[in-house]
Amino acid sequence: MDGQILGGFAHGFGAGMLERVVYSADGTLLSGTFQDYLCPTAPELPHLEIAHISTPSPSTAHGAKGLGDGCSMIAPAALANAIADATGLDDMAPPFLPGRIWQLLQGKDPDVILRQPAPSPSALDGAPLLQGALRGRDRIDIPAPRQAVWDALLHPESLRQIIPGCESVELAGDIYRARVGIAVAGIGATYDAELRMFDRHEPERLRLSGKATSKLGFGTGEAYVTFTETAPGHTVLTYEYAADVGGRLAAFGHRMLDGIVRMLLASFFSRLRAHLRGEEQPGRLHAWLRSPWLMLSAMWTRR
To answer: Which terminus of the chain has a lower count of CB atoms within 10 Å, N or C?
Structure first.
């Protein structure tokens, strides 16, 4: 009996505090693996005191009742009532994750981003919106003239030095072909990548698209990049990207892949700055990517 109650409570606790199927505005499933769809395990469950009260049923000959996971149904309601008593919130939907509760306490809708479709034009210089499950945008300050930044990003030899884990880069027409070795969560692979840069307006903006394949799977992506010289010898690089992955790579989950992409971009721009300054290239990225515990820690911190 106690085991049935504990098991039912675990189901209800997961539904109330952790588990959630999430889709992006374009219908992409964002919680397709246990990296993103969180189920409770023993360390997450609180200690439970169980007490029994006998209330025979008046509708049966011997007072017997059906036995099921009743605790799984009342646990989310009990948790919601406890949170409401503590915060004063009277309208919330599970799961009661800290970030969602914080948004509600600020008077914001925690689900508005998921419900709103992406705008048709990009915020970047009128470029059309890029498509992909993994998306991001950022602005990077680079202490170098705009032309120097442009040249570094388009020259094969400088790209070989800047791209993390890059072994070789060759240029054929407007297609860059590269071999890149990266270890993800302890699993290493060499990627054969092709990158095409087009819609070039030197040295103001460009677009690029590419694909990469390895034994772990494949990835495709596109980006839109602008270069703005805000002061002599100082450039702001603004970019927007979108990417998709398949094969075994997809098993890492959306949250982990998003963290990996952001880490790769951070390393890329760090190496770009070092290249433009004539400094030795930093080499800490691979150690971070090889440690699944550091990656998971970073993802939970972002949650």
So the answer is: N
pLDDT at 121: 40
Cα(166)–Cα(163) distance, integer angstroms: 5
Cα distance between residue 94 and residue 220, in whole Å: 34
Phi then psi for 204, rounded to 5 degrees?
-95, -45
Read off the amino acid at residue 213.
T
Range of the domain at 85: 2-57+66-115
pLDDT above 60: residue 290: no
- Overall number of domains in the chain: 2
87/185: higher pLDDT: 87
Residues 81 and 157 in one domain: no
Question: Vertex 164, ends 223 and 172: CA angle to 5°?
Answer: 60
Q: What is the pTM of this model?
A: 0.57
Which tokens in the block code for residue 118?
């992406």
Say yes or no: 92 and 229 in one domain: no
pLDDT in tens, 197-237: 988 999 999 999 999 998 878 888 899 999 999 999 999 99
Burial 62-76, CB ≥16 within 10 A → b, else e: eeeeeeeeebbeebb
Distance CA 143, CA 276 (A): 8
Mean pLDDT, rounded, for 114-122: 47
Q: Same structural domain for residues 157 and 290?
A: yes
**Domain presence at residue 86:** yes
Same domain, residue pair 176 and 287: yes
Contacts 24+ apart (CB under 8 A), 298-302: 298/259, 298/263, 299/35, 299/255, 299/256, 299/259, 302/255, 302/259
232 and 111 inside one domain: no
76-107 tens-digit pLDDT: 999 999 999 999 998 888 889 888 888 888 88
Calpha distance 109→223 (Å, rounded):
30
